[in-house]
Amino acid sequence: MEEDAYLDLYLNGCAGQDDLGPAVPPLFSPAAPYDVYNPSNPETAFSAHLEVKETSGDFSSVDLSFLPDELTQENKEESATGNQRGSEENEQDVGQGFSGSGLSSAHSHLQPGGAASLQPLPDKPDALPMAPIASMTPMNPVSECSGIVPQLQNIVSTVNLACKLDLKKIALHAKNAEYNPKRFAAVIMRIREPRTTALIFSSGKMVCTGAKSEEQSRLAARKYARVVQKLGFPARFLDFKIQNMVASCDVKFPIRLEGLVLTHRQFSSYEPELFPGLIYRMVKPRIVLLIFVSGKVVLTGAKERAEIYEAFENIYPILKGFKKA
Amino acid sequence: MPGGSCPDCGSSELVEDSHYSQNQLVCSDCGCVVTEGVLTTTFSDEGNLREVTYSRSTGEHEQVSRSQQRGLCRVKDLCRVLKLPPTFEDTAIAYYQKAYRLSGIRAARLQKKEVLVGCCVLITCRQHNWPLTMGAICTLLYADLDVFSGTYMQIVKLLGLDVPSLCLADLVKTYCSSFRLFHASPSVPAKYIEDQEKMLSRTLQLVELANEAWLVTGRHPLPVVTAATFLAWQSLRPSDRLTCSLARFCKLANVDLPYPAVSRLQELLGILLQMAKQLAWLQVLKLDKRSVVKHIGDLLKHRHMLLRMAFRDGTAELETQEKTPEQGRGEEVGLDSFSLPKGKRPASPSLLLPPCMLKSPKQAQPTPPVSTVTGDEDISDSEIEQYLRTPQEVRDFEKARAAISVPSPS
Question: Nearest residue on chain B to A43, judged by CA atoms?
Fold first, then answer.
């Protein structure tokens, strides 16, 4: 059988050889050569180029956290090698224009654990599946959290002052206002403490941006409302709502974006020709993350602080999986 | 019953009938022929012709509007210009039609529809691993990359498509083949002509090395390939070619020089120099960025090992945060550098990290003091008044504004 021949070739290659030479450039199967399993690159490269159908005895994407330790060790090698074939197979599938479920179809017959397989155990980095299952809810490992707290950088909130405003009058009587009706139909007002900017519309609606916390945003919005009040308008403070929160943090290790986009195809979009970062659209919570090669992560789209923290705790194990063991 | 009335009896019971395949409108009461077909229509006949609403005409079945037809035509032309296989054309057209059904696209400006043509072709090429860069499409369409990127991201999201990444290997092959250095030509000196196969394989190896050394991730792929092609070409005949600069090389080869290629070249040379330091017979030569080119062949042959030896694992290093004091041990001019015992590594290896992480980090911003703002504090009047103009200031401001806006007297 053709498959057996490939399997033999691969196993021979793995028999502790050194540099196999430039015969097979490992570059073009990016999921494989990041030294996750074997210290020597050429072997992983070699295997990554074989189109081997996954045999039914393959445990590549099984979450080994449910199994006792001995079994885990035993299956480590198989999971490592099987996984590369798995990711290679996924790559070959690319040409048929898969819409996101390539990974799940390749692994669906293997995984009993469903969504749980997505996260590697932090204390067993070698047993990590490089091609996690397509799951909408990545589960966190029970053991540890990242220890990194994303810092809020910007909060956008809206409030209704509930009265019609004369923008010309506001621009005339307020020092900190600018109004250029030809360019934009709102007054742009700024205050120093908390350092924020507000867009005030003639309908009485206002947008407040630039605050570093929810409370600061609320305080700033109230100050703007007071300024408008002092200018003689019957301004109120209705329906204050935080619309968007942006936070950033640093995981402090470099990330192989090409690998991440392969394993999390349905969530990620990485176009280096357009933007240097990878755009990860997490489903739960609904947050967009910008992940850069330097390890810096920007999280946006949250309405609450907890969503940001949850999103980061979800992404951190995924990113750690791309660190070299 | 068709509308209109019979000119003879005034009845409105007109029936469509055909007499020897010529359509006629006949009054069913008196039998008068109202209209008699296309060939002979008298003035009165024409008065009886009914106007047909669009919904009843054949136009309704032709769902393809003129702008969509134009777009489909453009898709076909683009595929032909790019010499794509015929199956690509069908796929691209299918995508265009699918996109056109979205309301956001149907109502979009013409500029967007023109760019959409390029997006559909690009998606088709990517799904078949045909290396087509966005820059190339934008040049062909005379489109702005910003407009293209916006439309591309939108259409991928709306159609829910899974578009694979640009295949770097294929890009190298196509891009390298476009260099005009493989056949003798009057503008290119003989010593610059190179064998295509050799250059291609060496370029592939260099690009692969760059990828491992974090020079490709997050960056535009093309400049790296340009730099790698240049180095491959130089290293195949260094004695004659070291004098040629990157800009001149691109000019001779009739290829545009992308702006970042210069810095990619420097980065790649830096990596090669680090690797060269691990080879004993090269250490004594004290190479610099120019002389290392002569040894690229050797360095590439052992690139995996040298890369591992030359660089510590950047990720592990950051984690442990230990700085083992590795003094530069005396240079081991051994006959076989491969068997250097681990403890006798020359000069401490540097970190293998993306260049953006190697630059000196900005002064770590002091974490902002935890603010104790509750959002409900009292706001003092004085604080608000600092933002308001006094009446005198208002008058001065208005006067100044009036003075500026008064048109200067002729």
Answer: B304
